[in-house]
Amino acid sequence: MSSSGVTPSSLAELLSSDNCVKLAGVDVDGILRGKLVSKKKFLSIAEAGFGFCSVIFGWDMHDQTYLKELKVSNAENGYRDMLAIPDLSSFRRIPWENNVPFFLVDFFDPETKKPIAPCSRGLLRTQLGKVQEKGYEAMAGAEYEFYTFRTPDSSSASPASFLQQNPPSQLPSLTEGMFGYSLNRPVHNKDWYYDVYDTCAKFHCDIEGWHTESGPGVYEAALEFGEVSQMADRASLFKYVVKSVGVNHGITPCFMAKPKQGLPGNSGHMHISIVDKDGKNLFARDSMDDGAKWTDIAGLSDLGRHFLAGLLEGLPDIMPMLAPTVNSYKRLVENFWAPVTVSWGLEHRAASIRLISPPTSKAGATRFEVRTPGADSNPHLVLAAILGCGWRGVEKKLEIPCPPLALGQDTGGSNDLGERLAKSLKEATARFMRRESVAREIFGDDFVDHFGGTRENEVRLFDEAVTDWYVFS
């Protein structure tokens, strides 16, 4: 969302009829962490910022501190405060909470005033800055699939207690059966269906396309295309809307990568393109290249080819940023329309990177759809990873390392069809953190050590878990 003219001097007038403001930052898992403050408090900290406990980067999504303490937040430094500064350009009002004003915040080191390493909004801004230094802008679009389950609405039993007492595998789906793109299924829950769509528009995370996906109670939303930094914010806030709106309808959404065995998982596909100051698509070639090495890239510019090469070369090293949980790798398996290799192709939905360009689409719509991320990923980290790897390819003028998949050709995990991506979070994290990792080159040691440490924590907890898979003899 644009700033709409919001400045520190205009805040008092903007909030003249309000008595409080809600603030939130994004943690490494993509979870919004924040609080409500009085208007008086907000006006006093809108420019200088305020102290925010760093423990949100010292614990996991269940508020359990990491077994191995990390540099930013730990017992030794007393889980000290970070500096949180509101981003005035993120202003919007929360329609389901009496239109209370809402702002996102960024996190900085209180001494150096530099963004802290695990601040995902700051990481994305840094990668975007490399593109903007050339006078260009990055554009993006996000698509999210998610399952929906029936739970008590807010007027009856607590949805949280209901979920605790009922195993996820036994929760009733909102609808049954496999009905992708159904016009009839949404009619069964039309109040919720249209409430989500309308509320997203009011909260400035507009939906461009909204339909059922194949699977019981599965829906997919394509968010309105826009600038990368705004897209990442809107993607995070979309999940906030869906979860909040569902409460009053007795519906709980699930953005896990793989909620149900034997059924498709939840993807979080990202579309990316680069434009110049006039909005011209820089991935599009001015005219078709009849001498291209592969016909798939005949309509792709040299910049676009280098960007693709950077994505392909970096993909194996950034997997935890795209697939951040143990469960993520249950989705990335063969035969479920989920990419499992370093692969690409023109209009190819089995590949990790789907190229959309002439001759099958208009030049102005030329872009890459990165199909590896799941719905459980942090959109700021996903877009930072995509931009970082792609722009590294541009700067180094990398060459595309592998041929495209032919139409009708599936990856299938075969070695001759591209390098197999990590099969587990443990494997992915080890590659991400290794000394010669592309991730370290792009994002620096501080981020890789912190984020990698958080993933190592999840792996260790999983290794110690006794799950339903085990049968007592």
Automatic annotation (TrEMBL):
All residue ranges annotated as the GS catalytic domain in the record: 120-473
Domain of life per record: Eukaryota
Pfam families linked to this entry: Gln-synt_C
Family annotation (InterPro entries): Gln_synt_N_sf, Gln_synth/guanido_kin_cat_dom, Gln_synth_cat_dom
Family matches, as Gene3D superfamilies: Glutamine synthetase, N-terminal domain, Glutamine synthetase/guanido kinase, catalytic domain
Keyword field: ATP-binding, Ligase, Nucleotide-binding
One of the GO BP terms on file: biogenic amine metabolic process
Molecular functions per Gene Ontology: ATP binding; glutamine synthetase activity
Record has Flavoprotein as a keyword: no
Family: Belongs to the glutamine synthetase family.
Protein name as catalogued: Glutamine synthetase
